[in-house]
């Protein structure tokens, strides 16, 4: 026997996709600067693909640094580095290790993600140029 609802559940209030606290942060000068920084980081090539000579097959995503952080708080928007999808969240390529899928293996293979923050700062400042494929 299956039970069927005779009338739909009543909605108790509007659903908020973003909390008021987060929206206030995004509208603050600090939040706007953080969003602009992450936009610029996403325009850079994946630091792992660039350093280890992989071919980047997906656009870069802004990854908030997690190594060396011993609390539940997220790293600030300025502590982000560009990672391709395969090095960030999921990898179909056995040669690439996804950070969020296997953090300990990623750290053993590539090092701490915080080690790449000075490289990202140099790239954003224009002091370094990304390595182009074939150079």
Tell me about this structure:
With 135 residues, this protein is mainly alpha-helical. The protein has a single domain (25-125), classed as 2-Layer Sandwich (Herpes Virus-1). 36% of the residues lie in helices and 7% in strands. It has six helices and two strands. A two-stranded antiparallel ribbon has the order 1-2. The longest helix has 14 residues, at 29-42. The protein is extended.
Strands of the biggest beta sheet: in what spatial order?
Answer: 1-2
Helix content: 25-40%
Number of domains: 1
Biggest β-sheet description: 2 strands, antiparallel
Compute the separation of the termini in Å: 68 Å
Tell how many strands the DSSP assignment holds. 2
Strand content: 5-15%
The assigned structural class equals mainly alpha
Low-confidence stretches: none
Kindly state the mean pLDDT as a whole number? Answer: 85
The secondary-structure element order is HHHEEHHH
User: CATH top level?
Assistant: Alpha Beta
Oligomer category: single chain
Radius of gyration: 20 Å
Q: Provide a count of the helices.
A: 6
In the CATH hierarchy, the architecture is 2-Layer Sandwich
Task: Indicate the overall shape.
Answer: extended
By CATH, the topology is Herpes Virus-1
Protein name: Recombination enhancement function protein
Region (Disordered): 1-25
InterPro entries: DUF968
Organism: Roseivivax jejudonensis
């Amino acid at each position: 026997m299956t039970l069927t609802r005779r009338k739909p559940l009543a909605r108790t209030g509007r659903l908020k996709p973003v909390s008021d606290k987060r929206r206030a942060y995004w509208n603050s000068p600090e939040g706007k600067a953080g969003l602009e920084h992450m936009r610029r980081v996403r325009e850079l090539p994946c630091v792992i693909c660039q350093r280890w000579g992989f071919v980047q097959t997906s656009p870069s995503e802004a990854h908030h640094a997690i190594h060396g952080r011993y609390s539940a708080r997220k790293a600030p928007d300025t502590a982000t580095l560009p990672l391709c999808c395969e090095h960030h969240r999921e990898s179909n390529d056995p040669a690439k290790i996804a950070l969020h899928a296997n953090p300990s293996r990623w750290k053993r293979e590539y090092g701490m993600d915080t080690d790449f923050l000075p490289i990202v700062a140099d790239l954003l400042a224009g002091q370094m140029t990304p390595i182009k494929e074939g150079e």
